[in-house]
Amino acid sequence: MDSSTLYVLAAAVLFGVGVYGLIVSAHLMRKLFAVNIMGSAIFLLLVATAGPVAGHPDPVPQALVLTGIVIAVSATAFGLALMVRLGQETGRATLGIQDEPENDD
Amino acid sequence: MIGLILDALIVISLVGLALQAINAASLFRAILHFVVLGLAMSLAWARLDAPDLAMAEAAIGAGVTGALMMIAYRRLVELKPEGEPARTTQRSKLALPIAVASGLLVGMIGLAASLTEHRPGLAGLAVLETMDATGLGNPITGVLLIFRGFDTLLEITVLLAALLGAQAVTQRPDPDPSLTTQDPTTPLVGALLAIVVPLTVLVSVHLLKAGSSDTGGAFQAGAVLAASGVLLILTGRVEASDRPVVLLNLGLVAGLVSFILLGLAPLLQGGTLLALPGIGAIYFLESAMTLSIALTLVLLFAGATGLKRGRHG
Fold first, then answer.
1. Using H for helix, E for strand and C for coil, what is the string for B141-169?
2. Which 33-92 residues of chain A touch chain B by CB within 8 A?
3. What is the pLDDT of residues B225-250, one digit of tens each?
4. Phi first, then psi: what are they for B240, rounded to 5°?
5. Among the listed ranges A8-22, B170-184, B250-264, B283-297, which one has the minimum average pLDDT value?
6. Which residues in B lie closer than 8 A to residue A88 (C-beta atoms)?
7. Chain B residue with minimal CA distance to A48?
8. Neighbour-count burial for B94-133, b at 16+ CB within 10 Å, e otherwise
9. Which of A37, A73, A57 is nearest to B220 (CA)?
10. Whether residue B80 has pLDDT greater than 90
11. Do B235 and B181 touch, CB atoms closer than 8 A?
C-alpha cells in the first residue's frame, strides 16, 4: 500500500464519519462540523488521486482545493451567522423538528 | 517506510479527531477537536506535496474557521448563560448504513482513480509547460490567476456574498459582550500586541510576495492579516460598529473591483477576457485581494458592518 492509497482510504472514512455526524447531530454547529469534514474528505480525495505531472505535483487539483477551502470557510461563516440568529430568535440552536409536540391525539 | 508510518499516524489522527469532533460530549470540546483536525489536515497536505494547501488549511481551515466557531459558540453561551443542554442526537436507524454506504462510494471512486493506470492530467501538463512564459514561479498561483482566473474571480465574489449574507442576518447587541475580553488594559496585552501585530503584518506581506514564486499567495496572506485584526478586536483596540465606514467598504470590494477592471482591460485592446496584462497586474491584484480577504474575515468575525477605534485603543 502506498501513501496515496492510504489517504484515499482516509478520505472514505472521513466522508462516512461526516455523513453520520450530519444525520445524527441535533446541534447545528455539529452539523456544520460534519459538512466541513465531508468537504475535507473530498479535498483529500482530489489531491491524493492526482498523480505527478512531469515530475511535479499536479497544480490544477491543488488550486481547485485551495479555492474550495476558501469557499468552505465562507459558507461556514454564513451558516454560523444563521445559527446565531436562530438562537436569538428561538433560544435554540437546533432545527427542532424532533421536539415538536405530537399532534396525534 | 518511515514515510508510510508517518502517513498512517496522520490518517489515524484525522479519523480519530473527526470522530471526536462529531461525538465529543460538550460542544466546546468538539470545536477544539475540529480545530486540531484542521491542523492534522494541514500535515496531510504537507505529506501530499501540497505546501500551499498546508498553509491555507492551517491559516484558513483551522485558524479562521476556529475563531469564527468559537465566537459563535460564545454568542450562544451569552444567549443562554446557564450552559448548553446535554448533547442531543437524532436517533436514526438509517444513519449508520447511509454513512457506511457513502464512505464506500467515496472509497471506490478514489481507489478506481488511483489504482488504474496513471495518466498525467493534461491541464496540469499544459500549466507546467507554459509557466515559464508567465514570469511566475508558483504554478498554483498561475492556475489561480492566469489559467483559471474566472474561478478565483467567482471565489472572491462568494466571499463577499457570504459577508453580505451574514451581515443581513446578524443582530448584534451594542456593545457586544461576546467580543470583549475581561480586562484588556493589563500592560502585558499592550506589550504582546506591540510584538505580535507587526510580526503578523510582516508574515502576511512575505506570504503575499512569496506567492508569485514560492509557497504562499493572497488567500494565505489575507488569513494571516485577518488574525491580527481578530486579535485587535479581542483586546478592545478596535471595536465593532454598526456604522459603515467608507474606507473600510472600499477595502472590502478592492479585490473584486480590481479583478473585474483588470479582467476587462484586455478587451479594450482586442485581447481576451481575464488575460491579466503582465506580472505587475498580478502583484497589484494579489495585494488588493489580500486586503479584501483580511477585512472580510475580520468583519465576519466581528459580525458587524463597520469597525471603529476601541475604548482601549
1. HHHHHHHCHHHHHHHHHHHHHHHHHHHHH
2. 33-34, 36-37, 40-45, 47-54, 56-67, 69-78, 80-85, 87-88, 91
3. 999 999 898 888 888 888 888 999 99
4. -70, 145
5. B170-184
6. 79, 171
7. B48
8. ebeeebeebbeebbebbeebbeeeeebbebbeebbeebee
9. A73
10. no
11. yes
pLDDT per residue as tens digits for the range A81-94: 999 999 888 888 88
| DSSP symbol at B87 | P
Check CB contact under 8 Å for B103 and A16. yes
Report chain B residues whose CB lies below 8 A from the CB of A95.
Answer: none
State the average pLDDT for chain B.
Answer: 87
* Euclidean distance between CA atoms A78 and B162, whole angstroms: 6
- If one counts every other C-beta atom within 10 angstroms of the C-beta of residue A3, the result is 18
Distance CA B266, CA B286 (A): 18
Inter-chain residue contact B151 with A67, CB threshold 8 Å: yes
Residue type, A57: P
Q: Determine whether the interchain pair B22/A20 forms a contact, defined as Cβ–Cβ distance below 8 Å.
A: yes
| Predicted TM-score (pTM) of this structure | 0.90
Cell output for B252: 472590502
Among B210, B85, B274, B140, residue whose Cα is nearest residue A69? B140
* Cβ separation B107–A9 shorter than 8 A: yes
Residues 6 or more apart whose Cβ sits within 8 Å of residue A32:
A76, A79, A80, A83, B69
CB B295 within 8 A of CB B248: yes
Evaluate the omega torsion of the peptide bond into residue B175 and state whether it is cis, within 30 degrees of 0: yes
- Using an 8 Å Cβ cutoff, are A49 and B117 in contact? no
Q: Is the pLDDT of residue A103 over 70?
A: no
The Cα B50–Cα B43 span in angstroms is: 10
Contact predicate B149/B276, CB 8 Å: yes
In B69-190, the DSSP E strands lie at none
